[in-house]
Specification:
Strand order of the largest sheet: 3-2-1-7-8-9
CATH architecture of the largest domain: 3-Layer(aba) Sandwich
Helix content: 25-40%
Bound molecules: adenosine-5-diphosphoribose
Structural class: alpha/beta
CATH class of the largest domain: Alpha Beta
Number of strands: 9
CATH topology of the largest domain: Rossmann fold
């Protein structure tokens, strides 16, 4: 691990264009469970609650679980050392941007600016007429929330299964995949597309892939050049110390 950490530090120092690609794993140490794995959310809840058709046919039922997972639970989460380290690397101009699959806002809360939210963000709610409102302006004990402007059903402004990826985030993500010389892949199984195409396209364009995860993933034996086995906050903190 020591040699790998030193190699990663050299790669980050030499790279002119480094991008991070983050998944649910980077927020686990902030108290947000991952989707997959032993105690993942999908082992407790049926993913159908995040299918667009199910949501519109069962708004109250779907909203009850969405509130439980993404508002009651996520609401208290704070950035951990991994989020803070990425924000520091951006400040030092070592990191250009972050592509995140996460909707928990923790990269922004940590102080990162250039963040592309590939699956949207839970902060806002949106109706079918594209009216958007801060989620915290609604009392989510009265479900489902309806749009104050047009009266239609409001949904969280994050991507449900079956929904298109936000256009700007998509474009910025794959521009980054073209330019990246190094990609830090942190806390993702690599199971969900099209997000998982980002590190793969970067690799195909010649980027070096550094992966941080306690377990191997679909990336590990296919595109990963340096696999740092462990928790995101511990490893990112160690990298920051060695960069000093
Ligand atoms: N540090 C780093 N990685 C961790 C940690 C940790 N402390 N704890 C767990 N992990 C890893 C797991 O080993 C796993 O590889 O984080 C990953 C979590 O995998 P998923 O839950 O599948 O998360 P992700 O890859 O982001 O899922 C992609 O699936 O349900 C959809 O839209 C949802 O954005 C999500 C997408």
């Amino acid at each position: 691990m020591n040699e790998d950490l030193n190699r990663v530090v050299s790669l980050l120092k030499e790279s002119n264009y480094t991008v991070a690609f983050t998944g649910a794993g980077i927020s686990v140490e902030s108290g947000i469970p991952p989707f997959r794995g032993a105690d993942g959310l999908w082992s407790k809840y049926n993913p159908e609650i995040l299918e667009l058709s199910y949501f519109y046919h069962n708004p109250a039922k779907s909203w009850k679980v969405i509130k439980e997972i993404f508002y009651d639970f996520f609401g208290e989460a704070k950035p951990n050392k991994a989020h803070l380290a990425l924000a520091e690397l951006e400040k030092r101009k070592i990191l250009k941007s972050i592509v995140t699959q996460n909707i928990d806002n923790l990269h922004f809360d940590a102080g990162s600016d250039e963040v592309y939210e590939f699956h949207g963000n839970s902060r806002m709610l949106i109706c079918e007429e594209n009216h958007r409102f801060e989620a915290n302006r609604f009392d989510l004990n009265n479900l489902p929330p309806m749009c104050p402007k047009c009266g239609k059903l409001l949904k969280p402004d994050f991507i449900f299964f079956g929904e298109g990826i936000p256009e700007l985030a998509y474009r910025k993500t794959f521009e980054a995949a073209q330019k990246a010389q190094v990609v830090l892949v942190i806390g993702s199984t690599g199971e969900v597309y099209p997000a998982a195409n980002m590190p793969r396209e970067a690799k195909a364009n010649g980027a070096t892939i550094i992966e941080i995860n306690p377990e191997k993933t679909l990336f590990s034996n296919s595109i990963t050049d340096v696999f740092l086995q462990g928790k995101a906050s511990e490893i990112m903190d160690e990298i920051l110390i060695r960069l000093n």
